[in-house]
């Protein structure tokens, strides 16, 4: 039986052409949908770019919402190695003369040397009390804001290393370290915070039955009111003390060398005892203000440029009114006045 090798043979009709035309006609709606989808996706992408530009503008504009951001202050020191400072918006312009006679320091003591950090010292308990010591009346006054901490030193903890770890894990307000000074390993205790009220005394309840001698756990005892060798067994390396200084001739005492509450809006960083007054000049930080304004201008120009581009004849959004409406709204922002202050952006140079 003969086979048909080509559509339309014997009929004279271009069957293949007809089929091709029909298929092409069927594909037209799909092609149109694909084109519309591409156009929609392009518009969505452009609107995403515009949205991101508005987010950047919002972030930049947030820094212009109060006078404090438009009036940043900076402090300039005549001797930054002795006293430096940072100013906040709540500060006042002016000159402050700072004289430092004493820096705040943390108390530090060192126990007698033993052979190594693994040498057995003794068992019992340690009680660390934070407070201030007065040498004149020879009295120790506990810090009412701090609770004394008792640390148990049991079997397995009686070495210098074990005692150090027990103290550091106790949150007692002191840190412990081990230093080899050439004669042996010594346990060194230091207050975590500076200031007179953050000094400490360390009392021992020694399992050998004697709590104040230089044998066993009591060798690390340190009661500043006691006698050396009888409760004051560790050696004082540094006494706790406050920072003592003057601001424009007024005496000030603080527990830290970073002082936030002496001059309103000014954080003082005391670094060294001074031999002459250090001058702090507090004034307008022009560079910070310029950076704030430049950021806003850059963000504003970027989004306005994006909107203007989409109003061009061949732009994707050329036939839509959204870009022009948004651009008009942006221009109006620059003309608005903040009623609270009676100022507009043009009043600050924009």
List keywords for this structure.
alpha+beta, 31% strand, 20 strands, five-stranded antiparallel sheet, 27% helix, elongated
Topology readout:
Elements: H1 15-62, E1 73-77, E2 83-87, E3 94-102, E4 108-110, E5 124-134, E6 139-142, E7 149-153, H2 160-168, E8 174-180, E9 185-191, E10 199-206, E11 222-228, E12 230-232, E13 235-238, E14 243-247, E15 250-254, E16 258-263, E17 266-270, E18 278-284, H3 286-309, H4 322-335, E19 337-338, E20 343-344
Helix pairs in contact: 1-3, 3-4
Q: What is the residue-mean pLDDT, rounded to a whole number?
A: 85
Helix content: 25-40%
Q: How much beta, percentage-wise?
A: 25-35%
Low-confidence region ranges? none
* H/E topology pattern: HEEEEEEEHEEEEEEEEEEEHHEE
Number of strands: 20
The main sheet orders its strands as 1-18-3-14-15
Strand count, sense and barrel status of the largest sheet are:
5 strands, antiparallel
Q: What overall geometry do the principal axes of the alpha carbons give?
A: elongated
